[in-house]
Amino acid sequence: MAQPLEMHEDRLLPSEPGRRAVARALYAQVKDLPIISPHGHSDPAWYADNIAFADPSRLLIIPDHYLLRMLYSQGVALERLGVPRRDHGPAEEDPRRIWRLFAEHYHLFRGTPSRLWLDYALYHLFGVRQRLAPDTAEAIYDQISDCLARPEFRVRELFRRFNIEVLATTDPPLSDLEAHRRIAAGDWPGRVLPTFRPDPVVDPEAPGFPENLARLGRLTGQDTGRWPGYLKALAERRQFFVRMGATATDHGHPSARTCDLAAADCQRLLDGALAGGLHPEEAEAFRGQMLMEMAKMSLEDGLVMQLHPGSWRNHNLLLYQRFGPDMGADIPTPTNYVQDLKPLLDRLGNEPRLTLILFTLDESAYSRELAPLAGHYPILRLGPAWWFFDSPQGMLRHRRSMIETAGFYNTVGFNDDTRAFASIPARHDLSRRLDCAYLSELVCDHRLAEDEAAELAVDLAYNLAKRAYRL
User: Which of 2, 37, 25 is nearest to 465 (CA)?
Assistant: First the structure.
């Protein structure tokens, strides 16, 4: 028998009546604020072309690695979910069959943020009122398909409906940003900005690194085989992104290591990287030096830095070989921020014009390293709970571990960091509810006045992200 899909008005708010009343009042002031989405992974061509999403599976399932990793862990082959193989081997092409398979396994997501996000999208975006299950899968698929065929479900109209004020994509450093150019040249008022993600040209272990640098040289007219020319080429690409509206860079390094090496040592590492002969320790030193160089360039061009260290990316070798990156197999590793950031902080940590936003997958670093560092160094800000911790309990642990030492105003609010466009309002709503729940605790413990909590709720939902990313 089909069960109703319910979205309780008090979900994620405290169960204790006094705190719940405070949280409700706070949430009422922020629930309809515009969305600032300063870091995400949606395709800018969607907005340039005002696409209509093809079907429920391609919209909600295939691009969401949170969903893929859970299903894979329970023995569901990614081919059956329609994920294309690198070797062009067989993969399911019927979106309805993919949807039915997903519905059969929907119970796996009980208690996860993915369930909260997807239920929100089903309920609020598509008007679904029955819980997704094998016996409701066909009807829900048809209901979503009918919606997607209507003009009001094209991506630009959804952008407006979601109340997105600004959204940043994440773009490779050699991109011509043609989609962003078309967005800027048109008359659509939506604000979609690029973000400079230089990993393919600053990580010597990135696939095709020598070829990437050769292309970088051709694009900029610089000799990228020599250290000064290489840096000039990177600075030129950054300036191109700035002209196209970028306000930030993003760095997905394995660690937070930074270095401050002599120019001769930098050239030696570059020579080794281009020859493919760096040892792992040398490759790490190269990446660490490039974080230093990126920070120095940010002083010149004003781009905000984001550092996402501590992820062993594509840990499942077989999955990576068969399907490529971003299949849900990135695994957290320990991260040493105090020691690894010391060279950069010694050189630039007191610069008022530089902002470095730190993210982490290492919860043990919250109160021991990150909060004390951000609570002292002017350049540092703390990003929101990321990936495995952008969940109700993870977000609350993040706040409780760091706010007392770092304060609210050394954080940058929330970003959704998603490829799944339909989940953006769900993720921001979850964050706003949890922040109001946390603030209600401070109010009811008489650690914070209610008017201050109301101001903070708006800052956390809107102002801090806008300010930190210079939007």
Answer: 37
Helix (H) or strand (E) holding 342: helix 342-348
pLDDT confidence band for 259 (50 / 70 / 90): very high
CATH number of 17-51+154-468: 3.20.20.140
Q: Which helix (H) or strand (E) holds 23?
A: helix 17-30
Strands, sheet with 248-251, edge to edge from the N-terminal-most edge strand: 248-251, 304-307, 356-358, 380-382
How do beta strands 304-307 and 311-312 pair?
unpaired
Return the closest-CA partner of residue 360 out of 350, 344, 371.
Answer: 371
Q: Residue 20 contacts by C-beta under 8 Å, 6 or more apart in sequence?
A: 10, 13, 14, 440
Residue of 326, 417, 422, 429 whose CA lies nearest to 56: 422
Please, are residues 107 and 114 in contact by the beta-carbon 8 Å criterion? no
In whole angstroms, give the CA distance from residue 220 to residue 72.
42
How confident is the model over 122-176, as pLDDT tens digits?
A: 999 999 999 999 999 999 999 999 999 999 999 999 999 999 999 999 999 999 9
Rounded to whole angstroms, the Cα distance separating 461 from 435 reads: 8
Q: Cα dihedral angle (376, 377, 381, 386), rounded to 10 degrees?
A: -80
- 376's tokens: 């002292």
Which two tokens mark 257? 């290591």
CATH number for the domain formed by residue range(s) 52-153: 1.10.2020.10
pTM for this model (two decimals):
0.97
Q: 418: closest CA among 185, 150, 210, 121?
A: 121
Q: What span, in angstroms and rounded, lies between the C-alpha atoms of 226 and 217?
A: 10
For 222-239, what is each residue's pLDDT tens digit? 999 999 999 999 999 999
Phi and psi, residue 353, nearest 5°? -90, -5
- The 10s digit of each residue's pLDDT in 382-401 is 999 999 999 999 999 999 99
Residues 6+ apart with CB under 8 A from 187: none
Element containing residue 132 per DSSP (H, E): none
**Domain spans in the chain, listed from the N-terminal domain onward:** 17-51+154-468, 52-153
